[in-house]
Amino acid sequence: MEIRKVQITGGSSYIVSLPKQWIRSTKIQKNDPVGLIVQPDGSLLITPKIGGESLQRVRVFEVGASADRTSLLRLLVGAYVAGFTAIHIEARDRMPQFVRQLVREFTQMTIGQEVVDEITGRQVERLVDQSTTWVATRASWSAEWVSSAGYDDTMARLSPAACARLHERLLDVVRELERGSVDDPDVEWVSVFLAAIPQTPEQATS
Question: What pLDDT, in 10s, does the model give residues 55-68?
Answer without folding.
Answer: 567 888 888 777 88
